[in-house]
Amino acid sequence: MKAKGGVALLAGAFVVSPLALGLGIVLLISASDDEGDSGGGFDLSAGSLRVGKGYVPAEYAGLIERAAATCDQGLPAAVLAAQIMQESGFNPRAQSKDANGNPIADGISQFIPSTWAAEGIDGNGDGRKDVWDPEDAIPSQASMMCKLLKSGKKHPEYNGSPIELALAGYNAGWFRVESYKGVPPPEFADGQTYNYVQAIMANVEKLTAPDTSGDPGTSGGWGRPVKGKLGTPYHQAGGAWSSGYHTGIDFAVSTGTSIHAIGPGSVVSAGNGGAYGNQVVIRHPDGMYSQYAHLSRIRVSKGDSVSGGQVVGLSGETGNAFGPHLHFEIRTGPEYGSDVSPLPYLRAKGVSI
β-strand 43-44 against 50-51: which pairing, if any? Predict the structure, then answer.
């Protein structure tokens, strides 16, 4: 049995105790280091995942996509894939052990025995639930994450997006999310759950396949959505927002300032967004979404292809706004509650901000 590094968190521990989290987990692999990848670069699956060496192994891409599709809560396949990457490195024989060598969590999705007994399903219909079989473990992971995501959406006042809350619940138990009213802070369990969530969210974009539709309209560079000073930062807490915190970043600009698409993509929403006022949401080739809110005018329509830098609207103060500005979000999905930090995303695209 060969030790393999790369996973420092307790994975799949839905009901784990604080003591277990603090034991110092070691991931042991009972198979070879071959993860099924070969060659350089990457290929694209027929779905939403980036496949190949350093990304999602081809043998698991379809299974992950199908498992994510069973969730009616909008669970992105890339979130499941990034979670598995963090849990086991896509190794179905992975086993986490404590400092004394006692097994804690098993399989590609790293379920502890008590959680597997409660959440495991017969994903391939062969009449048995096998934690070591990815065809059972990955659908079980998706089912559990879907339940947690549904719970997360019921608590917009908690600290963290619903997906982040679901990930925290998968790692430390939903009762910990309830206890901290959000993702447990770095002070909890030496930051294991906090870092777990951060690491997975950081890999979502990496594992999302580019849009290969070939639409000539999806060309152009990446840039800032508007020329203006940064205002309210991401995740600032406050009673001005229904979630209890700011889900994007603001740019301080006057009404009528041109708002630009940050990059190429397709418009999935253009119209009234309730508290967001007039808004535009764009899906980009990497599978991520950008949102532009509180607009005074909208210059695009749903279904339009846009290039980077194209004007999509004019700034304003429609909806729940206190003065003119642009509210800007980056999301893993098109709807509220799937937000991620916008500045790291823009900087990864080469945007100086």
Answer: antiparallel
